[in-house]
């Protein structure tokens, strides 16, 4: 594997003011479908973390696909990065659905011989990651993609937008004490939820004009983490253009039994804000299109 050279946050967590975002390395060109000047906006999708709650992202993607919403940029944290990488790699939503439904979440908790700062077997995670993106580089994916991890030294968000996909995914899901941290260059990376569980800012940074964000965990259940991020100048406060919040309150983060219901919850939550999504994507409402189509022949055929 080549050594990834991601766009690291330029200042320690808490010292990186919004104005410092411009100091990040080079603007990221759009690599999705070609867009001409003055055409539809570049749409970004920010997928939040939440372990098995991430199944809801599949329902979100299915609903967006049904609406015909073109997604150009995908940024994810933890489970959101896992689903997002598969989608950015071009896997059909139906394939992602099958993978998620067949996942055995408890296997991620298999204890292995204690390793450096991690006690769970990363090989289980590596095998799961291989089903989503195999050993590919982020730059080669058909959609622009990035995963958010956390720099263990500074607790700064670390945006992995180049290099091997497996490395980025292992980093964004490296829960301290469970999975070992991942070294990328000089940085030691852990789970992105510690610095930015809902990476709206990342999608904008990668060139999205409009961002649809999916939050899987109600803020009240993440209160300790949210307070930590806020106290240190956190990055979950940037407002998306559309916020999707699937109902995950009745389900477990680590049990597969709730996966079908979570997928449906993702679809329902997306359909609930369908008008907002179509508005930012420049799409016509289906009812309006049908009405316009049926009115044309009637106007030219009196008495018909």
Automatic annotation (TrEMBL):
<dbReference type="InterPro" id="IPR050301">
    <property type="entry name" value="NTE"/>
</dbReference>
<feature type="region of interest" description="Disordered">
    <location>
        <begin position="1"/>
        <end position="21"/>
    </location>
</feature>
<protein>
    <submittedName>
        <fullName>Patatin-like phospholipase family protein</fullName>
    </submittedName>
</protein>
<dbReference type="InterPro" id="IPR002641">
    <property type="entry name" value="PNPLA_dom"/>
</dbReference>
<dbReference type="InterPro" id="IPR016035">
    <property type="entry name" value="Acyl_Trfase/lysoPLipase"/>
</dbReference>
<keyword id="KW-0378">Hydrolase</keyword>
<dbReference type="Pfam" id="PF01734">
    <property type="entry name" value="Patatin"/>
</dbReference>
<feature type="active site" description="Nucleophile">
    <location>
        <position position="78"/>
    </location>
</feature>
<feature type="short sequence motif" description="GXSXG">
    <location>
        <begin position="76"/>
        <end position="80"/>
    </location>
</feature>
<dbReference type="GO" id="GO:0016042">
    <property type="term" value="P:lipid catabolic process"/>
</dbReference>
<feature type="domain" description="PNPLA">
    <location>
        <begin position="45"/>
        <end position="204"/>
    </location>
</feature>
<dbReference type="GO" id="GO:0016787">
    <property type="term" value="F:hydrolase activity"/>
</dbReference>
<feature type="short sequence motif" description="DGA/G">
    <location>
        <begin position="191"/>
        <end position="193"/>
    </location>
</feature>
<keyword id="KW-0443">Lipid metabolism</keyword>
<feature type="active site" description="Proton acceptor">
    <location>
        <position position="191"/>
    </location>
</feature>
<keyword id="KW-0442">Lipid degradation</keyword>
């Amino acid at each position: 594997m080549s050594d990834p050279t991601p766009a690291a946050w330029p200042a320690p967590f808490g010292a990186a003011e919004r104005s410092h975002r411009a100091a990040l390395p080079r603007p990221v060109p759009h690599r999705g479908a070609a867009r001409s000047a003055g055409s539809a906006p570049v749409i970004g999708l920010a997928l939040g973390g939440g372990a098995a709650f991430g199944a809801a992202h599949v329902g979100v993607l299915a609903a967006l696909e049904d609406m015909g919403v073109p997604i150009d940029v995908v940024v994810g944290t933890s489970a959101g990065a896992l689903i997002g990488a598969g989608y950015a790699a071009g896997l059909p939503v139906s394939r992602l659905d099958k993978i998620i439904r067949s996942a055995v979440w408890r296997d991620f908790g298999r204890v292995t011989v204690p390793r450096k700062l991690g006690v769970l077997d990363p090989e289980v995670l590596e095998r799961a990651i291989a089903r989503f993106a195999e050993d590919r580089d982020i730059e080669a994916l058909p959609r622009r993609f990035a995963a958010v991890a956390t720099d263990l030294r500074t607790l700064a968000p670390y945006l992995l937008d180049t290099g091997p996909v497996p490395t980025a995914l292992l980093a964004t899901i490296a829960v301290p004490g469970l999975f070992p941290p991942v070294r990328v260059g000089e940085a030691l990376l852990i789970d992105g939820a510690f610095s930015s569980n809902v990476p709206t800012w990342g999608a904008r940074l990668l060139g999205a004009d409009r961002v649809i964000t999916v939050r899987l965990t109600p803020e009240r259940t993440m209160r300790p983490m949210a307070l930590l991020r806020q106290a240190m100048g956190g990055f979950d406060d940037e407002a998306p253009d559309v916020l999707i919040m699937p109902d995950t309150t009745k389900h477990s983060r680590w049990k597969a039994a709730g996966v079908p219901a979570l997928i449906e919850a993702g679809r329902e939550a997306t359909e609930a804000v369908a008008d907002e999504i179509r508005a930012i994507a420049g799409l016509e409402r289906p009812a309006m299109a049908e009405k316009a189509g049926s009115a044309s022949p009637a106007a030219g055929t009196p008495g018909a």
